Every structure is written in C-alpha cells, then in structure tokens.
C-alpha cells in the first residue's frame, strides 16, 4: 500500500522554493485522490529537476493509483536507475524503491500472462514461441559468433529440423551397422581414441582448457581436418560408405572432420563457439546410456540413439554426459543448405588458402 509521506520524505534536489511548493501541491492532490492534478504538478517539477528522485517515485505511485501502468513503469524505472548512482538513501526513499521494484515485477507478470494467453503454447509454432520468450526476457538472443570466418546473410538457427535433409533417413537407418563397427573398434583398440583437444590443436582456442590432452572427451577420426584417415576408414567401411551420400563440407586442409566422439561419465564441454558459420555440425548418437544433453543457444536437446541432431556450432553451445557410462556419437560437418554451389567452391578455396597461410 502506498503511504503518502511528508515533503521531507521525498527530497527535492534543489533549494528553489517554487519547486518545493509544487511538490507540496502534488502531495496534497495525491492525498485527495486527484491523480491527474498530482501528476501534472510532478511533471512540472521533473521538467526543471529531472533527477529529483522523490518526485519520480511519487509520480510512479500516483500513476499506479490512477491505473496508468505505462507511466508508472517509466517513472519507477527512471527512479531505480537514478538510485543506483546514489548510495546511503534515507529509509523512506529505500521503501519507495522497494515498492517500485515490486510493482515493476507485478506489471511484467501481468504483461506476460496477457501475451501468453493470446495463443495457447500447444498451438504455437516453434519460432513464434521462441520469439515470445525473447520478448518477455525468458530467453537470451544467441547469434552466430564464429571464431575465424563469418559468411553474411545466413539464418540464425540453433537446431535444424533433420526432416529438411533428404539424406538423413538413410543415414539413420544405418545406425545399427555403424554401432557394430564402433563396438568392434572399442573392443580391439581403445588406444586409437585420442583427446579431442590436444596441445597442438586450436580447438576452443584455449591451450589451458581443462579438457586439454584429457580423454574425458576423445575422438576416433575417419576424417580429420579435411584429410581421410585411411586406416580408420578401412576398419569402419560401412560407416565410411554411409557418409559418401552426405554433403560433407570439403575444404582442403580444413574440413570435414568425421569422428566417433566420446564423452566419459560426468564430462562437461563448457560453452564455446565454433570456427566458421558455413557448416553445420551433425551428431548421430550411437551409445547413449543415460541422461546426456547438448545446449545450443537457448535450446537444450537430449541425445537419443539413432536420431540425428543438426546444429550451428558458431552459436554458443555446451554439452554434458550425466550418465554413469560413456556416451558416443558419430560427429561430422556438412555444408549449410543455404549456400549455393558457387559459394561453396569460393569458401572451400578461401579456407584452404587460410590454412596454407597459417602453416607457412
């Protein structure tokens, strides 16, 4: 409940008598329920003394009492912003600031409830639902932030719909045979799995990363940085053949990478961004023994064996295996579908040149 205090409780940051008189008028009219008259007097004060914290709080209270929540919100926000720069405020002012915060939270809740009621959640499209969460502050905006190369004009999509790619059903259907080849490799030679981040690599751009030279996140490569690992492909011929029908993003010395990616129990890959936004990362989950998840931007996906996941790794992402056994996916990268054939050739040439220049 609003308490209309004394003029001294709501300090005017000026010694001008006319402003003090105006403030007394504003208080008197507020006590009499003349919200419009009080608001007019307060706006006159604030036109001359815009940093008058007491008048801002009183204007918020008066506007709230009259049902003008927009004006109340504006006044309360201005008061809270000003108060952040003025420590050691007197108790009556602190009480007014607490009231302002509570009412702003109330307005936000009412606003969200009204907008949420326009279209029931189960009847919304996915993108509209996300836009509403962003509007109401329930989600951050996550955008592509590649660490090496940015290609303009590509859509900001966190997870792609696998159903939009004609090669996905055939690859998913081959999950059992790929799983068999993976299990054979695991049984024969686990030493072939190397730490995903090694001291000579640029992954995540952090040589002091906690996963550096750590087999908690490890890899068995079929293709590595654009070069085929012949010995490993020979050990997994069905897997290698299955990927021949996939639009891998070939760029000499750079792409693709195709690997069995291992996360041991409890392993956490912290938030990071990928190198280039001209590719998409794909996961075909092969061994998922329990809860394990991948967050891309504002969306979190839980891996399911045999169900492909396609995402933009230049949007901040992280992953964790919360199961008590190892999680393994077949990880590979493909061209973004929005790129033309000419653009793919240009990008491949450029990335190859960048790689050669870096080596020299």
How is this structure best described in words?
This protein is of the alpha+beta class and 360 residues long. It has two domains: 7-116, Alpha Horseshoe (Serine Threonine Protein Phosphatase 5, Tetratricopeptide repeat), CATH 1.25.40; 159-359, B-lactam Antibiotic, Isopenicillin N Synthase, Chain (Jelly Rolls, Sandwich), CATH 2.60.120.330. It contains eleven helices and twelve strands. It has helices at 17-31, 35-48, 53-66, 69-83, 91-116, 126-135, 168-173, 175-188, 230-235, 237-242, 341-359; strands at 159-160, 194-195, 217-224, 227-228, 258-263, 268-272, 279-287, 292-296, 299-302, 309-311, 317-321, 327-335. Strands 1, 2, 3, 4, 5, 7, 10 and 12 form an eight-stranded antiparallel beta sheet that branches. Strands 6-11-8-9 form a four-stranded antiparallel beta sheet, with no helix packed on it. A hairpin with a 2-residue loop joins strand 8 (292-296) and strand 9. Helix 2 runs antiparallel to helix 3 (53-66), helix 3 (53-66) runs antiparallel to helix 4 (69-83) and helix 3 crosses helix 5 (91-116). The longest helix is centred in the N-terminal third of the chain and has 26 residues, at 91-116. Mean pLDDT is 90; it is low at 3-17 and 203-207. Belongs to the aspartyl/asparaginyl beta-hydroxylase family. GO terms for molecular function: dioxygenase activity. Residues 173-337 form the Aspartyl/asparaginy/proline hydroxylase domain. This is Aspartyl/asparaginy/proline hydroxylase domain-containing protein. It holds the Pfam family Asp_Arg_Hydrox.
């Amino acid at each position: 409940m609003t308490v209309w205090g004394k003029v001294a409780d709501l300090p005017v940051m000026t010694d001008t008598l006319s402003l003090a008189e105006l403030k007394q008028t504003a208080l008197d009219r507020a006590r009499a329920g003349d919200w419009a008259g009080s608001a007019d007097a307060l706006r006159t004060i604030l036109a001359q003394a815009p940093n008058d914290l007491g008048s801002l709080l009183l204007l918020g209270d008066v506007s709230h009492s009259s049902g003008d929540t927009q004006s109340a919100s504006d006044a309360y926000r201005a008061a809270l912003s000003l108060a952040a720069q003025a420590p050691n405020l007197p108790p009556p002012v602190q009480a007014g600031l607490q009231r302002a915060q509570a009412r702003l939270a109330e307005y936000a809740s009412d606003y969200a409830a009204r907008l949420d009621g326009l279209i029931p959640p189960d009847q919304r499209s996915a993108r509209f639902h996300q836009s509403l969460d962003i509007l109401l502050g329930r989600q951050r905006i996550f955008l592509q932030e590649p660490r090496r190369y940015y290609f303009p004009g590509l859509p900001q999509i966190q997870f792609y719909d696998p159903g939009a790619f004609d090669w996905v059903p055939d690859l998913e259907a081959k999950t059992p045979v790929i799983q068999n080849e993976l299990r054979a490799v695991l049984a024969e030679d686990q030493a072939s799995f190397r730490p995903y981040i090694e001291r000579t690599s640029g992954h995540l751009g952090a040589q002091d990363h906690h996963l550096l030279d750590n087999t908690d996140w490890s890899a068995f490569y079929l293709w590595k940085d654009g070069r085929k690992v012949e010995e490993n492909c020979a050990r997994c011929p069905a897997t290698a053949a299955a990927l021949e029908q996939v639009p891998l993003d070939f760029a000499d010395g750079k792409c693709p990478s195709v690997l069995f990616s291992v996360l041991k129990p409890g392993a956490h890959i912290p938030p990071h961004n990928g190198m280039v936004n001209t590719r998409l990362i794909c996961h075909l989950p092969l061994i998922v023994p329990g809860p394990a998840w991948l967050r891309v931007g504002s969306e979190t996906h839980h891996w399911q064996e045999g169900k492909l996941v396609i995402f933009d790794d230049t949007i901040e992402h992280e992953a964790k295996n919360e199961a008590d056994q190892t999680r393994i996916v077949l990880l590979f990268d493909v061209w973004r579908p929005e790129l033309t054939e000419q653009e793919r050739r240009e990008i491949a040439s450029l990335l190859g040149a960048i790689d050669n220049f870096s080596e020299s």
